[in-house]
Amino acid sequence: MSDKYILVVDDDPDLVETVALMLESKGCEVGRAYDGVEAEESIKQRRPDLIVLDIMMPRKDGYILCAELKANEKTRNIPIVLLTAVGEAVPTTTYTHADGMSTEADEYIAKPIDTESLWKVVNDLLG
């Protein structure tokens, strides 16, 4: 895994750090972005091998970014793991599980994140 570059995108800096440190401890190189727009810029600079992407973020949410990446020939093959706290938040947000199912994300992980479960998903996708 040491040659794998993973982009972690979430508007919660603590979560980004937690996930980044776990991935780095497994030998991955990690990029960090704090919203969808920042993630897009980062992807243009360096194509990640996998993206860990939060759904609810300012400027551009994870559903929109995921759909755009999957629609683009250059980025459609990048595995995307969507992080979702939407389950508990659905009554208070405009996000729905139907939105999630309509995206072409490769996997979903519920928040709060269990880093070992996330690692298993990442490992399987990059396998």
UniProtKB/TrEMBL annotation:
* UniProt key word Transcription regulation: yes
4-aspartylphosphate carried by residues: D54
Origin superkingdom: Bacteria
Record domain Response regulatory: where: 5-126
GO-annotated molecular function: DNA binding
Q: Which Pfam families match?
A: Response_reg
Which protein, by its recorded name, is this? Response regulator receiver domain protein
Organism of provenance: uncultured Desulfobacterium sp
